[in-house]
Every structure is written in C-alpha cells, then in structure tokens.
Design brief:
Blueprint: H1 59-68, E1 70-74, E2 83-85, H2 105-115, E3 119-126, E4 129-137, E5 143-147, H3 148-151, E6 156-160, E7 166-175, E8 180-184, E9 207-212, E10 220-235, E11 241-246, E12 258-261, E13 266-276, E14 285-289, H4 290-303
Antiparallel strand pairs: 1-13, 2-10, 3-4, 3-6, 4-5, 5-8, 6-7, 7-8, 9-10, 9-12, 10-11, 11-14, 12-13, 13-14
Length: 304
Amino acid sequence: MHSTIAGLGEPRGPRFVSPALPADEQPPASPAVAAVPAAPTAPDPAVGNPEPAVGAPRWPRLLLAGLTVVAVSTGAGGVAGHLTAGDAPAASPGSAPAGPTGSTAADLVTAADQVLAGVVSVRVTSGGRGASGSGFLIDDRGHVVTNNHVVAGGNTFQVVGRDGRRLTARLVGRDPGTDIAVLRVDPGNGLRPLPLATAGQTRVGEPVLAVGSPLGLSGTVTAGIVSALDRPVRLGAGARQPALQTDASINPGNSGGPLVNGRGEVVGVNTAIATLEGSGNIGIGFAIPVERAAQVAQGLIARG
C-alpha cells in the first residue's frame, strides 16, 4: 500500500529572541540565520572585506544571534503554525531535584510498551486533501486527545491503532486557544487509556518519551528529558501559555501525541518544535502540560 508522507510546510511566524541577547545586538528583521565564523578572521580578498579580527572576539554573540532567530512549525504533517517564546526563566530557582522517575533504560522500555497500546495515528481529510497527526486515549469511553491544528478544517476523521486497525472517529470539540481537540471512537476497540501524571510532579531533567507518528511512521518512540518548565509560548492565534520544553525528538506528525515519563504517565501533549531557518528538529520541542490539556478536554467532552 502506497502512502504519501506530508511535509513540514513552510515555517512561518514571529521571531524567537533570547532574553540573553543584549538589546543593542538584536538580530535583524530578516528571518535568515546569520553565518557564524568558527573564530574571528582577517579580511579575505576573495570575498571582499569582512569584519577584521579584533581584540575582543564577537563570535559568541554572533552565534547567539544566529540561534535565536528561528521559525517554529507545528508537528502535524502538512500543517504549519507558529510559536513565540517569552522571556521567563526556564525553571524557578531552588526547584527540588527530580526524585525516582523511572530513569533506567529498563523503565523506559517498560513505559514505551505500556503507552503504545493507547497511542493512535490521526488521519484527517477535507476536500480530497489530508493531514496527519497523533493522539491518545484519555478514558474508557473512547475519547482521544489530539491537537486542534491537526483536526482543524477536517471533514472526516480516522484513528489507527497499534495493530493497524482503522477506526472511524467523530469530532467532539476543539479549542484553538489551547490547541487541544477531542475525537471519539466506539468503546471496546482494544485501545488502552493512558494514565495522567499528577500535576506539579514533573521536574526538569526527568527522562521522558515522545510517542506518536512522525512523518507517518506510527508507533515511533523517541527519548529525551524535560528541558524546562513553564516556558511561555504562543501557539497559533492563542494567548501566551506555559509549556513544557523537551529535547525528545518531535517532528511533523507527532502533534497531539503524548509526552510520557518513565512510569508511562502522560505529562504533556506534544504540540510544536522550534527550528532554525531551513532545518528540521533541533532538539527544542514543546508540549501542553497534561493538567491543562486534561481540563480543556474534559470541558469539551462535557459540552460535546
């Protein structure tokens, strides 16, 4: 069976400017990433007259400028979005160190095996065109959490489980402001609801797994850590909201899939990645904290 993997689309959106960058050295308005020399260099007749070497090297600041002009794309295949990070600190000073969180390789293997039974690929079609993303079962009534930008504009919806079965789904509701949506499939489908992590227990440095269908590759698991808590970001047209930052690899198609800890508990809903101009995943991904996602999802279910 032939399948076409939808691409990332054209990255777009506001620039991300690091709070560490001095005001007088803000990156230019153009989204192009500045070329960064490995070290200060003297003029080269072959290329004109670049800045000569000086006593105080500027390349670290040039590097910072180059890395802070980024385009952000959503993780759903064929659907592009944007994100703007704020200038809040990555985590509160004096945060408690992470406790036992299932950090061994064996724990992560066990966690992956547990969650894959509740993670699905989400297929959306509209007017002969399609998009794809990920989702996960949140209860035993067949409700599936995903991202709003995965389902927005869709007319028909399907979810595909670990065993390859395609299940027809209906849209229960969606919330563009938080980028959360809920689908529903008939109960008794063999999908397993995933447990949710306790609010406030996630820690920076905690190992996590991103589970979903990047580039249409269903059942993909990638590992990383929680890089930051409460990172203010703006998703789509929504207001700025705190998000989890992770270095677990997130790519187009991962949107709506779970970010889980070493105990197999969902800590967030994968939503967006940061990219340098013209590149893909660079190890900076964002997830909606599970407590907010669950609250929004329950509201949509109650109204749907």
